[in-house]
Amino acid sequence: MLSRKALVVVAVAAALALFGASLARADDYYSPRYAKAPTYYAPPPFQWSGIYVGAHGGLAFTEAPNPFAGRNGPALGLQAGYLLQMGMLVGGGEIEASYLGNNEHQVPGGKLEETWRGALKGRAGVAFDRTLLYGTAGLALTRYNGADGLQNGSSLNIGYLLGGGIEQAFGSNLTARVEYNYIGTPDVSVTSIWGTQHRDIDSHVLKGGVNYRF
């Protein structure tokens, strides 16, 4: 039989062991394994508002966009603009200038060649975060040269531009886009051996571009 003193010692030792085990469990609970996971905050939506400059390149054509047709020409140029975003709606304006590489239009008595075009246009669309679907419309100023029997010299003619495209943002400053433009130039004077006529000229441009946003 254990003496009373021995029983007291055994009881005290057991109590100390239980207390130590409790401290160990508490230390495990507050160790990094049980630390609360950091809160995740979703990044803010992309903002299209601001000034941008860029360059574009593509194909100018008068009928079906066959890249091998001799009447087609390149469309190479620069653009600059400003966009303002309100919710999902985006609107703004853009100015562009394009070299057209003598894109040809057949007319009575010869042909007209487009050499360059400037355009002042508005843009409006809907943003899905980093993707922008938009339409565009404005004024176009095209320089034509007469060739193959036409007596026309170089002339500037005002028309209208309609189109649309899709633009995608990469990072915070760079975007890339694909855009189609229809350009109607009414009442262009054409002079040949058959006299002077006035023709409505239809043009098309399919182009890709990149913009840098400030």
3D architecture notes:
There is one protein chain. The longest helix has 26 residues. The model has no long low-confidence stretch (mean pLDDT 83). The protein has 214 residues and is mainly beta. 12% of the residues lie in helices and 63% in strands. Strand 3 and strand 4 form a beta hairpin. The protein has two domains: 31 residues; 164 residues, Porin, CATH 2.40.160. It has one helix and eight strands; from the N terminus they run αββββββββ.
Topology (elements, then pairings):
Blueprint: H1 4-29, E1 50-61, E2 73-86, E3 89-107, E4 110-128, E5 131-147, E6 155-170, E7 174-192, E8 195-213
Antiparallel strand pairs: 1-2, 1-8, 2-3, 3-4, 4-5, 5-6, 6-7, 7-8
Short descriptors:
214 residues; 8-stranded antiparallel barrel; 63% strand; Porin
| Sheet with most strands: strand arrangement | 1-2-3-4-5-6-7-8
**Helix coverage percent:** 10-25%
Distance between the termini: 91 Å
Strand content: over 45%
* Shape-level CATH architecture of the largest domain: Beta Barrel
Domain count: 2
CATH classification, class level of the largest domain: Mainly Beta
Coarse shape: elongated
Which class of secondary structure composition applies to the elements?
mainly beta
| Low-pLDDT runs | none
